[in-house]
Design a protein that fits this description.
Layout (H helix, E strand, L loop, with lengths): L12 E4 L4 H15 L5 H14 L3 E3 L2 E2 L2 E3 L7 E11 L9 E9 L4 H15 L2 H8 L4 H6 L5
Parallel strand pairs: 1-5, 3-6, 4-6
Antiparallel strand pairs: 2-3, 5-6
Length: 149
């Protein structure tokens, strides 16, 4: 089983006051762009938005998992967005989103992607963990909440 903790980094945790889905996504993409791991930030942002147009990535429980796979990536990454206020994401359960896990990775590793998604879903099913993430005071605190996953 893949450990999502290996894809998490405190530099990839964003606390935001953004009130619109696209702005949240833009901020998370910017984090990866500034890290140097994203060659085409605009292309990646567009791929994420195009994916949202097909079906929402707001999975419920106040969580969204926007994602895109592209040939330019060698490995997966996760950017965590902690939203100070709920944002309408057209979620499956109608709940405003407070936690966003933006996933990017290679387009030829579907099995690994599904394992990451499965591990992440397992970790965020825990309501207490979700509350602790939303109320975290630092990026390091958020990362610690995924220890063991």
């Amino acid at each position: 089983m893949v450990k999502i903790s290996k894809f998490l980094d405190s530099k990839q945790v964003v606390f935001t006051d953004a009130k619109k889905r696209d702005l949240v996504i833009h901020q998370l993409v910017d984090v990866m762009s500034h890290s140097g791991r994203l060659k085409d930030a605009q292309g990646f942002f567009k791929a994420i938005i195009d994916r949202e147009k097909i079906v929402t990535t707001g999975i419920g429980m106040g969580v969204a998992i926007p994602h895109a796979k592209q040939h330019e990536f060698n490995d997966f990454f996760i950017v965590v967005g902690v939203l100070r206020e709920g944002v309408d994401w057209s979620s499956l359960d109608g709940t405003p989103v407070r936690l966003v896990f933006l996933i990017g990775g290679p387009d030829d590793k579907q099995t690994e992607y599904l394992q990451i998604l499965s591990a992440l879903t397992l970790a965020i099913k825990d309501e207490e963990r979700r509350k602790k993430i939303v109320n975290a005071g630092s990026a390091e605190e958020v990362i610690k909440l995924f220890k063991g996953f």
